[in-house]
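Sample A.
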Amino acid sequence: MDYINNSEEILSRKERERQFKRNEILKAACKIFAEKGFENSTLDEIAEASEYGKGTLYNYFQNKEDIYVALLEMIIQNYLNMLSESANKTDNIFDFLKIVTEELIKFSLNNDDAFLLLTKMRAIPNGESHLKKSKKLEEHLSNVNQIYTKYFNKSVENGEIRKIDNETILVLYRNLAFSYIYHLKYCKKLENIDIKKESQFLLDFLFNGIKNN
C-alpha cells in the first residue's frame, strides 16, 4: 500500500508532467509535515524540499493547508482501497483484522513519512479544524468506518464478540495498532520485523488481553 497515486491512466504529456510535479510536491510536503507537524511547517520549506520554486507550488495548491489536506486525502484513499481489498478476502472479523494489521505494518515499513504523519494527526484531540473543510476526506473516513462497522455488527450477530459500542472497539484497535507499530519502528528500532508474528500478537492482545489462558 503506497500513499502517492501514480495512476497509469492515459494522459497527455502535459498532464503527466503536471501530475508528476504535483506528486513530487506532496512527497516533499509529507516529509516536512511528518518531521515538524502542520503548524511548524512552511511553504518555503516545502518548496525547498521539492526543489521547485514557491511560485510553482501556487500553480497546484492555494496554500499550506491545501497541500496538507490533499496529502491526507490521498493517504486515506489508499487506506480505504486496502480495506476494501481486505474485505473481499474474508467475512471473518479476526482474519480481516489480521490482514489489515499486516498491511499497516507493511505500510509503516515502506512509507516512514506518511506513517509518522498519520500518527501525529491521530494524536491531536478531536481532529484538526482545517480537515473538516474537506468533504472528500470526510467521505473517505466515513467509508473507512463503515467497513469496520460492518464487521463488528456481523461478529456480534454471530456471537463471535460481545456487544460493545462500535466506535469504542475501533478506537481501541486503531490506537493499539498505531502505537504498537510505532513502538516497533522507532523505540525498538527493529530492522527485521516479523509481520505475521507481530500482527498476531497485537490481535491476541486486543481480544484476549494479558490473562493466562
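Sample B, a different protein:
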Amino acid sequence: MKRFILGLITVALIAVLNINPTHADVNDFTITDFQADYYLDKDNNGHSTLRTIEKITAQFPEYDQNHGIERVLIANYDNHTTKLNVESVTDQNDSSLNYSTYWSNSNLILRIGDSETYVHGARTYVIKYSQTDVTRYFANTNDDEFYWDVNGTGWSQKFDNITARLHLGSGIISQVNNKNACYYGQFESNSQCAITKFGDVITASVTNLGMGDNMTIVAGFNPHTFTEYKMTVADFLAKYSFVISAIIGSILLIILTSLKITRGRGAKGRGTIVPEYLPPKGINVALSSVINGKEATWAAATYIDLAVRHNLRIIEVEKKLFSRAKYSLEFVNDKGLDETEKLIITTLFGDDPIQGAKYEINPSGFDYKVSRLLKKAYKNVKADAQQSGYYIIDKQLQNIMIGLVVVMAIQAFVMWMLSASSEFGVFNIIIGVLMTTAGSWIIISTKPLSVKGRELFDYLKGLQMYIKYAEADRIKVLQSPQGAEKTPVDTSDVEMLVHLYERVLPYAVLFGIEKEWTKVLGRYYEQQNTAPSWYIGHSVFNAAAFSSSMSNFSGSATTSSYSASSGGSGGGGFSGGGGGGGGGGGW
C-alpha cells in the first residue's frame, strides 16, 4: 500500500512539474541512416583531393529536447592539414540550414540548427565539404591507401544503418589495386564488413552500430599513385602562425619600448638627482602629476593641497562598526586658485558655491559625474603642458613608431588570413589586437620632455627622494649649505617644520608615499599641542589616528575619482585507424 501511495505521489509530481527524467540528455536520440559519398581524385600536381557529401538522418523525440545536431569534422590527417572547407549545410530538399562553427582539439565542430527552435521526429542533414592530401603511402603494404573513418567513434548515438560510397575519379581509377577493406565497431576493432567495387564506385555498409561504434573503409592504389604531402611555406606559416605572430609582435614591442626609453625621454637631465624639500615654485599639483605620470592620485593630492592652503576643509565622518570611514570636503574660499583649481571647486560644489558647501566622498564607490569632469580637467592640463613647452614634438620618432605598429597590424592580419580556416584563426585575431593595442599605447604615452620639462621632472624626482628619506636625513638636508641657500628652515622651530610638512604633504600623496610623512607631521602637531585647522576628525586628535585618516582619505578620494601508423588494405587495419570520422551528437 505504501509503495502504491508513493508511486501515485511521484506520478503527480511529474505531472505537476512537467518533469520527465528521460528528457534531460540532448544525446538521447538515434541516427537512423548515415550515407557518405566520397569523391576521390588527384589534382594536376598529383595530390589527392576529396569532396564529401554526408546525408545524416536523425530520429528525435517528440518533446522539446534538441535544436539540432553537432558534427565533428577532423581537419588534419597524418599530422598535417587537409585544408578542410565546409561548402554547405542543407536539408534533404537542398534548403539551407542555420549552422555555426567552432574549434575544439584541432577539430571543426558544426552546430546545426536554431537555438530558438526545437526539432522533432525525423530530420535529415546534408553536409558538403572538401579536403586535400587525404591519402598516404604505407610501407608495410607497399601501396597508397585511402584509409578513412566514416562516422567516427565520437558519437553517443546508435546507428541503424551506415553506408559509404567511394567514387573514383578518372585520374586514379586505373591505379586501383583492389586491396579494399571495411572495418566496424569500437576503436581498434578489427571486425570486418563487406565491401564491393562496381565500376568506379566502391561501396560498404553496416547496420545496428552502438554508441561509439565506427565504420572505416580502405581503398588501395598502386604505389605512389598520389604525391606525398610536403609542407609548403604557406602551410608552415598557417600551422605556426600564432607562434610567428607572437614572436614578431614581441620583437616589435621590444623595439617600440626601447625607442620610448631612449629617444622618447626627450632632453637629458642634469644627471645627478638632488633632494628637494619644497614644492616646485609656480607649479600646481595637477601639472606636476602630468610631468611625473601620476594620474591616479592627482585628484586626492589636489584636494589635500587645497585643504592645507585653507580653500577646503577635510571632515571625517564618524566611523561605524565594520564600515570604512567616510569623508566630506567643505568649501572655505577660492582665494589664490588658478584656473584648474577653480574648475575642481566648480566640479565638486557647483557654480558660485557658498562657504560651508559640502561634497561627500564615497569611500567604496565610483562617482561617474565627478570623475568625468575631473578627467576633462586633467586633459586640459595635459594640453596646457604641451602648449607651455614642457614637451617636444619629435615627428621622426612618431613616424618610426607608427610604422612599427602598422607593420605589427599587417603581419597579424596576414597570419590571420593564412590561418582563418584553422583553429588558430581566432588566436591570431586576439594576438593582433593585443599587440597593436599595446603598441598604440606606447606611442600615445611617449612624450619626449623638453629642457623645461626635464628640469621639472628632475625636481619632482628630487622632492620624491626627500620625502622617502628618514626623518634624521631630512633634517640633515635642511641643515646643509645647499638647503640654506634655498628657503632657510630652522629645524628647531616646530611651527616652521609643520608649515613645511603641510606644503609637501600633497606631493607625498601624489607619489603614494604619504603614510610615513603624515606620521611625522602628526607628531609635530602633538609637540605643538595643536591640530590642523584644515582637517576635522571625529575624535580627539592624535598622530597615529591622523596618519591613518590621511591614508584612508587618499584611498577613498582616489577610488571615487579615478577609473582606470600501418596500412589497412591487407587486412591488418581496424575501426578508427584512418583519417576523417570524428563524431557528433545533439544540442
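Observation for Sample B: The radius of gyration is 38 Å.
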